[in-house]
C-alpha cells in the first residue's frame, strides 16, 4: 500500500516521501479501514518537525485523523462497508488497522471532505468552550482567527452570546469573520492589539484568550486580559516564548494553562466521548461549520500539499486523498 513516511525530522515538505509498505492486518478488536481522505492539520506538521507532544519511532507515518470505509472487522463494532471517521496515528496511508473505539460512524450526508475533519478540531472546539465556561456577554480573544479551529470556536461562542475579538495578520478574513459573528476583527499588521482591545472592551479587557501562536503575539494577548482572566494556549505557530511576570499572575490573578487534545480526551469517559462525537457530527452537518476545502491532493503529491498549507492567506483545509 502507499504510505507517506518521514525518516528524519525537519520542514515537512522536505522530509516526507511516498513509500510502499505492507498492508496492516487487524488484530483482536480492530478494524481494517481503507482511508479515503485526511486533512493536513498543524499538529501533523509539528509531528513531522519533531515538535509535537509525542515523539515517533522513525520511520513514521504522519496523520492523526481521516475518513474511510471498513474493509475487515474482528469485532462487533462498525460493519464492513460502513464509513467511519478515524482518530489514530498514521492516517496518511491507504489502510490503517485501528481499535473499534478509535472510529466514529459517519452518516452519508457528510462528504469525505467534512467527515475527515471530525475527530480533531470539532472535539477541540467543543472541549475548549466547555472548559472556558464563558457566559453571555463575556469577551473572548482568539488569535490565528482565520484557522479552521478558531472559526469553529467562534461559531460555538457566538451561539452562546460570547463576544469574540478575532485577531488576524491580514485583511483577507475580515468579512468572513464578521459574518460568522465576530464582535471585532483586529489586524495586528496595522493595529496595536492591546490598545484596540482596550478600546473595543471599554477599557476592561477580555475575560479569556485562546492563543495558537505564542511568542510576541501570545504575550500581547495575555496583556489584553482583565483581572481574573484566563489564557489558554493551544498552539505554537510562532514557536517563541511567552513573556509573563509573577507580578501579573499574583496581583492580577491571571490564569495561564495549556490545552492538548490527547491529554484532555484521555480524561473523558466513553459516554462523554460518544456524546461529543455525536455533537461533532451534528455540527459538521450545519452550514459553515466545517472548514472549506482549499485544495485536494493525492498522497503522491504530499510535498506539494504541504507547500500549499504554508501559503500566506490560505483559506480552508488542504485534504490528502487516495
Automatic annotation (TrEMBL):
Protein name as it appears in the record: Alcohol dehydrogenase
Matches recorded under InterPro entries: ADH-like_C (IPR013149), ADH-like_N (IPR013154), ER (IPR020843), GroES-like_sf (IPR011032), NAD(P)-bd_dom_sf (IPR036291)
All residue ranges annotated as the Enoyl reductase (ER) domain in the record: 11-320
Keywords, comma-separated and alphabetical: NADP, Oxidoreductase
Top-level taxon of origin: Bacteria
Gene Ontology molecular function: any one: quinone reductase (NADPH) activity
Top-level EC class: oxidoreductase
EC number: 1.6.5.5
Highest classification ranks of the organism: Bacteria, Bacillati, Actinomycetota, Actinomycetes, Pseudonocardiales
Source species: Saccharothrix espanaensis (strain ATCC 51144 / DSM 44229 / JCM 9112 / NBRC 15066 / NRRL 15764)
Amino acid at each position: 500500500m502507499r504510505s507517506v513516511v518521514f525518516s528524519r525530522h525537519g520542514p515537512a515538505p522536505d522530509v516526507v516521501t511516498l513509500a510502499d509498505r505492507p498492508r496492516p492486518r487487524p488484530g483482536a478488536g480492530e478494524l481494517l479501514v481503507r482511508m479515503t481522505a485526511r486533512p493536513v492539520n498543524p499538529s501533523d506538521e509539528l509531528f513531522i518537525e519533531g515538535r509535537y507532544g509525542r515523539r515517533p519511532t522513525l520511520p513514521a507515518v504522519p496523520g492523526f485523523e481521516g475518513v474511510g470505509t471498513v474493509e475487515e472487522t474482528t469485532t462487533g463494532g462498525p460493519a464492513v462497508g460502513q464509513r467511519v471517521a478515524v482518530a489514530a496515528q498514521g492516517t496518511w496511508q491507504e489502510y490503517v488497522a485501528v481499535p473499534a473505539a478509535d472510529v466514529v460512524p459517519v452518516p452519508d450526508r457528510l462528504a469525505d471532505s467534512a467527515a475527515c475533519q471530525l475527530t480533531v478540531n470539532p472535539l477541540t472546539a467543543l472541549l475548549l468552550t466547555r472548559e472556558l465556561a464563558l457566559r453571555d456577554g463575556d469577551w473572548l480573544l482568539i488569535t490565528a482567527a482565520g484557522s479552521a479551529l478558531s472559526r469553529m470556536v467562534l461559531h460555538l461562542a457566538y451561539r452562546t452570546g460570547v463576544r469574540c475579538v478575532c485577531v488576524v495578520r491580514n485583511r483577507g478574513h475580515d468579512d468572513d469573520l464578521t459574518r460568522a459573528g465576530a464582535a471585532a476583527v483586529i489586524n495586528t499588521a496595522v493595529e496595536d492589539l492591546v490598545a484596540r482591545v482596550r478600546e473595543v472592551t471599554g477599557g476592561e479587557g477580555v475575560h479569556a484568550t485562546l492563543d495558537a501562536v505564542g511568542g510576541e503575539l501570545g504575550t500581547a494577548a495575555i496583556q489584553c486580559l482583565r483581572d481574573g482572566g484566563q489564557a489558554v494556549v493551544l498552539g505554537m505557530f510562532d514557536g517563541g516564548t511567552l513573556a509573563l511576570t509573577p507580578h501579573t499572575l499574583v496581583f492580577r490573578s491571571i490564569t495561564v494553562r495549556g490545552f492538548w487534545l490527547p491529554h484532555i480526551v484521555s480524561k473523558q469517559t466513553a459516554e462523554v466521548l460518544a456524546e461529543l462525537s455525536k455533537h461533532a457530527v451534528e455540527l459538521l452537518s450545519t452550514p459553515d461549520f466545517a472548514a472549506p476545502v482549499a485544495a485536494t491532493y493525492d498522497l503522491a503529491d504530499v510535498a506539494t500539499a504541504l507547500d500549499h498549507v504554508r501559503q500566506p492567506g490560505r483559506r480552508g483545509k488542504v485534504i490528502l486523498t487516495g
